Amino acid sequence: MNGRLRTPLKNALGLGSAHQGSHHFVVQRLTAAALVLLGLWFVWTVLKLLHLDYEGAHALVAQPCNAVLLLAFVVAAFWHAQLGLQVVIEDYVHTRGSQLVLQVAVKFICFIGAAASVLAILKIALGR
Amino acid sequence: MPANARPLSPHLSIYRWQIQMVTSILHRATGIALAAGTILLVVALLALASGPQAYAQVAAFCGSWFGTLLLVGWTWSLAYHLLNGIRHLWQDLGYGYLPAQFVRNGWIVSIGSVLLAGLVWACVLAQRGGA
Asked: Which residues fall in a coiled-coil region (chain B) (predicted)?
């Protein structure tokens, strides 16, 4: 069986039947590992934000270290969300049309969400 | 409807409930909930960027009973998805596949998520009381 039905080139490329190899799997785990650390930091930071007024909250997010970690958090979160939702849709939506519409919509929304967050964080960090 | 109505294997209804199913289903459910919840984070960041008035509106929403309900739900979802995600990463490394380990880790994750979410909200309430 092994190697009989596959060309040597296909084995060497290792991209499998979906032609994407393990890229999705690897990026999902990579963003997951990042989000373990960033998620804990995020909860910690939100707890610090709670008792601050607008000026205090603005100043806290504007601190370079916090701004950078928050940027990393939102980018990793939306990336991870897109990858996860993609699999859920692949598993449960079996109609071609709705699957296509949902997959594209999720990608668009995740990108817009990440872009809007990045813009907001940059404005907070660089403004004034 | 699917293009051709193929027979499907019996789904949830036929199986006895067990922790392995629950952890898997909850991981997806909390993942979807967190994806939706991230939209509130975007709104909060945009409000913080645009000025005190917008920020006050978001803060008022988060302080309302409905906003608090959502935040409690998202806190537990994050705690659960975080701990169960660590369990998944652990399994990706090749550990924890024996049934006894699987069941034990599933319960650790489930109970731990409630404790972790409770800890976060204890901090919130302590701050609110102190403020």
From this structure: none
